[in-house]
Write a sequence for this structure.
């Protein structure tokens, strides 16, 4: 099944070569969504996945991811899941950016269903980023993982920092946050964050 997905992705990527920035935004959003989805599945099982899927929008392209997550939450067999998603892809006759977005959702959902680790799914998805965005993303994630390993920030604070980095459109990444009781580790935190700001 993955072979068909990759063939369709290759075909459609050539149609959107001039829209890489839009594609980068779609992929970054999907990576965050996959990370959240996998975390929910590990903690709460399929019922948690069903609840998370219900929170996704019906008005945007996320409705396809929502549909896929519902199918997974129902405990559907992987082959049946793949057939449903592939038939929906061909029925909607997607092309270009819409095809890529659908196929990446499909690929991510398939990997989630197979209980693939979040970091491995992330590695698959970042391959579709532009080289510049991939380097930038990897640098940010390394920094956030280092901060997380030092346990200086809560999960919510990490998500806030990631969001601020991603939402900054002019490229001058400014990180504003408070760290309580970090003591001497605050200097290490500032050094780590400066690594990604220097670019």
């Amino acid at each position: 099944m993955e072979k068909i997905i990759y063939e369709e992705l290759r075909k459609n990527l050539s149609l959107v070569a001039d829209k890489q920035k839009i594609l980068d935004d779609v992929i970054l959003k999907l990576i965050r969504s996959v990370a959240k989805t996998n975390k929910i599945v590990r903690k709460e099982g399929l019922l948690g996945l069903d609840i998370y899927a219900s929170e996704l929008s019906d008005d945007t392209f996320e409705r396809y991811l929502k549909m896929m997550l519902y199918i997974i939450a129902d405990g559907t067999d992987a082959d049946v899941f793949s057939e449903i998603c592939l038939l929906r892809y061909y029925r909607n006759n997607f092309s270009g950016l819409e095809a890529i977005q659908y196929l990446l959702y499909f690929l991510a959902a398939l990997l989630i269903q197979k209980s693939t680790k979040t970091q491995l799914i992330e590695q698959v998805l970042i391959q579709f980023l532009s080289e510049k965005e991939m380097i930038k993303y990897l640098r940010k994630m390394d920094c956030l993982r280092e901060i997380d390993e030092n346990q200086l920030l809560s999960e919510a604070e990490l998500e806030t920092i990631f969001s601020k980095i991603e939402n900054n459109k002019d490229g001058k990444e400014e990180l504003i946050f408070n760290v309580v009781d970090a003591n001497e580790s605050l200097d290490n935190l500032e050094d780590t964050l400066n690594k990604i700001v220097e670019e």
User: Anything to note?
Assistant: The CA atoms of residues 42 and 87 lie 29 Å apart.
